[in-house]
Write a structure and sequence with these properties.
Strands 6-5-4-3-2-1-14 form a seven-stranded mixed β-sheet. Strands 7-8-9-10-11-12-13 form a seven-stranded mixed β-sheet, with helices on one face. The model has no long low-confidence stretch (mean pLDDT about 95). By secondary structure, the protein is of the alpha/beta class. It is built from ten helices and 14 strands. Bound molecules: zinc ion (ZN) (2 copies). The site of one zinc ion (ZN) has 5 residues, from loops. The site of one zinc ion (ZN) has 6 residues, from helix 2.
Length: about 260
C-alpha cells in the first residue's frame, strides 16, 4: 500500500491510499490540479481511483469534491445524516447529488481493493465520519475533526496497523492564544477537535509494536509540529513508528515500513 497525504490542516485535507491497482481518496479540500500532479509525481495512475469518501463537509475537507466527481466520474460517499442535513452546502460546492452515495455508520462498503467501515465522529458538521478500512490484508484507520474519541473508534483503531489521527491543538497554546473565547470553546469542545494529549493517549492505548501512527490536522495557530513530535517521543513506546504530518506538507509512505 502506498499512501499520500497531499495536505493536512485547515489549509486543506486530502489523503490518498493506493494498492497500485486500486486507489481511494479520503477528503478533498484541494484543487483537482494538485491531486493529479501529486499522484503523477508518485506514480499513482489517476485511472485507478475507484471512489472518494468525505469525513465531513467543511470546505477544507470537501471544497474540491464536486470537480473531482465530475472529472473522474467516481462515486463519492458520505453518511446518510450528512446528506440529509447539508443539502445547501452540497449545492454550493457543486456536488452532484445523483452520484452521491450514502452509508450507515458501521456498515462495510466494498469497492475494488478495499473494504471500508465508516464510524461517527463528534464535530460541528452533521453526519461527520471517520474511516477504518482494509486493503491487501492490512487494516488502516483515519480519524480527524472530532471533539471527543467516539466509542466506535477504539476497536477499529486497535485492529489497525496504520493510523492517521488528528492532533489538532496544544491545550496551553489554545488557552493562552489570541482566539476569542467562543472559538476556544468550539475547538476544545465536544464538537471541535482533538488535543495533542487526547490524540497521544488514544494512539498509545490502541497501538502495538510494529504499528505506524501519523498525526495529522495540526492547527497552524495553536500547535507546532515540534510539540507533537516531543510529546510522541515521550508518550509513545519505541517500536511504534510515529510521524507528524506538518500542515500543508506532502507526505508519502509505504505500508512495508519504508518511509519517504
Ligand atoms: Zn471540520
Ligand atoms: Zn478540518
Amino acid at each position: 500500500m502506498h499512501y499520500l497525504v497531499i495536505t493536512t490542516g485547515s489549509c486543506g485535507n486530502c489523503y490518498i491510499f493506493s494498492t497500485g491497482e486500486d486507489t481511494i481518496i479520503i477528503d478533498d479540500g484541494v484543487t483537482f490540479k494538485k491531486i493529479t500532479e501529486k499522484m503523477a509525481e508518485h506514480d499513482i495512475p489517476i485511472n485507478t481511483v475507484r471512489a472518494a469518501f468525505l469525513t465531513h463537509l467543511h470546505p477544507d475537507h470537501s471544497k474540491g469534491i464536486g470537480v473531482l466527481q465530475r472529472k473522474l466520474n467516481i462515486p463519492v460517499y458520505i453518511s446518510k445524516l450528512s446528506r440529509e442535513r447539508n443539502e445547501s452546502i452540497m449545492i454550493r460546492q457543486k456536488i452532484e447529488l445523483d452520484r452521491l452515495f450514502t452509508y450507515d455508520y458501521g456498515t462495510p462498503i466494498d469497492i475494488p481493493g478495499f473494504s471500508i467501515v465508516p464510524f461517527p465522529t463528534s464535530h460541528d458538521s452533521d453526519g461527520a465520519a471517520g474511516y477504518a478500512f482494509s486493503a491487501e490484508g492490512i487494516d488502516y484507520f483515519l480519524m480527524t475533526d472530532t471533539g471527543v474519541i467516539p466509542d466506535e473508534a477504539w476497536d477499529l483503531a486497535e485492529k489497525a496497523k496504520v493510523k492517521f489521527i488528528e492532533s489538532n491543538y496544544d491545550e496551553k497554546m489554545l488557552e493562552e492564544g489570541g482566539y476569542p473565547p467562543f472559538l476556544k470553546e468550539r475547538i476544545s469542545g465536544r464538537y471541535g477537535h482533538l488535543s495533542n494529549r487526547e490524540a497521544m493517549d488514544f494512539a498509545k492505548r490502541t497501538s502495538r509494536h510494529g504499528d505506524s501512527v501519523y498525526f495529522v490536522h495540526l492547527s497552524a495557530n495553536n500547535n507546532t509540529p515540534q510539540i507533537v513530535r516531543d510529546l510522541a517521543r515521550k508518550e509513545i513506546p519505541s517500536g511504534i513508528f510515529c510521524r507528524v504530518c506538518e500542515r500543508g506538507e506532502l507526505f508519502e509512505g509505504f505500508q512495508d515500513g519504508k518511509e519517504g
